[in-house]
Amino acid sequence: MLTPAFDLSQDPDFLTVAIRVPYARVSEFDVYFEGVDFKFYAKPYFLRLTLPGRIVENGNEQGSYDADKGIFTIRLPKETPGQHFEGLNMLTALLAPRKSRTAKPLVEEIGASEVSEEGVEDDDDEFDWEIEQSPYEEVPESALNPNCRYGFGNLRSGVFQRLQDELSDVIDIKDPDFTSAAERRQKRLAAELAKFDPDHYLADFMEDEAVKQVLEYNPWWTDLYSEMMTSLEKGQEEENFAALVSFSEEEKYQLRKFVNKSYLLDKRAHRQVYYSLIDILLAYCYETRVTEGERNVESAWNIRKLSPTLCWFETWTNVHEILVSFGRRVLCYPLYRHFKLVMKAYRDTIKILQLGKGAVLKCLLDIHKIFQENDPAYILNDLYISDYCVWIQKAKSKKLAALAESLKKASLTKAQLGLELEELEAAAFLVQEEETTSKAGVHSTSRQQTPASSSETSGSEESESSASPETEESESEQEEPGGGESETEHSLFGPFVEESSMALLLNDGGMCRSTTFLGSDDGRGQPLASPRASRASGPLIQELGEQLETSVQISEPKDSAAGQQGSVLERESRKTPED
Question: Are 352 and 221 in contact (CB under 8 A)?
């Protein structure tokens, strides 16, 4: 917390406290006073005073705020009208914490063997939780570097000398009051190179489904721009286009809260104002498109992070370097990092500028609202956006039109960003082509191996047929879809089978197959196999059993069913007809 500069004065009935809190979040502040205690809080400032007299809250207290000077003025009624408060200029004494009203007991027991828990709690109650305060010391202008300026029109300096610790999350630059414009740019470029992630970029480049959806979104200015172009084709005058942009009641309320002021800008500062406006609008267009108009907690971060004006206090000399800087930051920081989004935001900014200062003001009001609702980013409203909202209302339309034309003539390529994007994309396509070729080669090899396997299988079948015609017929029967009926049906009827027996039956063509018989009460089994098994003959079975006693060796091709058939025949060879 920072102790603000303050001053106290009095009259017979009131005590007046003037508190200077530049760049404070004045939309949220607290004031507490009772007796001799006075406390004031407005982030990042806190003031606690112990007054020499008592004040009271009776409804006559008053307060005001001077936005130009950043001063709160609070009038507090005295509890005793006419009382004179001594020592109002003794600032150090007023900042000192109030002494505790409690005192240690005069008599204490010494050498107690045990310490009770109540005693420990009493010690905690006596702990002084009040923070230390020191009087504010104004930094003289002579101590500041005249080349280290920032803010709207580069009119500010010395702001971050005391606020650096409180507002370090708002900007990327450290010690802006002592860093020149050239040093800022050098550090910014180095930070962008360190942040650039080729893997993230290539992931968005090769898999751009989400990016395509974002590119198809039409923000609010798209329809207005189409309507304006239609009117131009019909020959209508440009003065009538101002009515295309309308403001909501909330936006009108925002406009009424701004303090009207004039800005004395030289030619160089005036050019910086216009250039920085392009930079801020580019960041806003990107944010609006990627969120599809639905603000979220990252909106303030996106806008200030993509705008070097807001996070690095960058200054510009031409339009092209603004585009290069914006393109680099889009490819380094946000979630979606695609060059097409850079160009889309570029074209959106041209449309907004061509629509006139009404459309530009509408964008600035939206940015102001986003920053005001974000705890660390509100300071950027005081430095830039609030002044832009006031200044743009008096800007000349011809200047904005010329700015739009200048932006329209500018061009941007991937090579100009200095991130070697084209080399990365070429390498990615080369890897993708190699993977495709490799996969095609694997498929071709597998197709060539398939006929060889088939010939090997046919050769093994021919060797088996020459050894035993009955064995060949048995194998062909097992290759049929119904060859697994016996085992399947046995598993399905298992709970109902009381007795089972194996028999070798012959079909019409002399094929041999095993059949399971389901036991019955009369002792006669009913076969679960095909009805063709009824033609079986005892002598043939006996002859087949003798032949099956000889072991059959079958060569097994890889990934074929012949191996399974060979294992089945080997198991059958171990059985006899008596089994």
Answer: yes
Cis check: omega of the bond before 198, within 30 degrees of 0: no
The one-letter amino acid code at 48 reads: R
Secondary structure element (H or E) that encloses residue 53, with its range: strand 45-55
Q: pLDDT tens, 215-271?
A: 999 999 999 999 999 888 877 766 667 778 999 999 999 999 898 888 889 999 999
Check pLDDT > 50 for residue 481: no
Q: Which residues pair with 570 in a beta bridge?
A: none
Q: Label the pairing between strands 512-518 and 45-55.
A: unpaired
Q: What is the pTM of this model?
A: 0.65
> What values do phi and psi take at 468, rounded to 5?
-155, 110
Q: What is the distance between the alpha carbons of residues 421 and 423, in angstroms, rounded to a whole number? A: 5
Rounded Cα–Cα distance for residues 19 and 183 (Å): 35
What span, in angstroms and rounded, lies between the C-alpha atoms of 557 and 450? 11
Among 99, 94, 62, smallest CA distance to 77 is for 62
Task: Give the tens place of pLDDT for each residue, 94-152.
Answer: 887 765 444 455 555 555 444 444 444 444 444 445 666 766 666 555 556 777 889 99
DSSP assignment of 214-256 equals HHT---HHHHHHHHHHHHHHTT--GGGGGGG----HHHHHHHH
Question: How far does the chain reach from its first CA to its final CA, in angstroms?
Answer: 97
Both structure tokens of 519: 């036991």
